[in-house]
Amino acid sequence: MKIKPLYLYGGILVLATVFLIFFTSRNDSDSSENISKNEVPDDDIHKGLKNPNQSPGKENVSSEVKHQLEMLKKSVEENPNDTLKMREYADLLAAAHHPEEAVIYYYSILNINPRRTDILNSLAFLYYNKKDYSKAADVINKVLLYEPDNTQAIYNLGAIAAASGNKEEARKRWELLVKKYPNSNESRLAVNSLKKL
Question: Is the pTM of this model over 0.85?
Answer without folding.
Answer: no
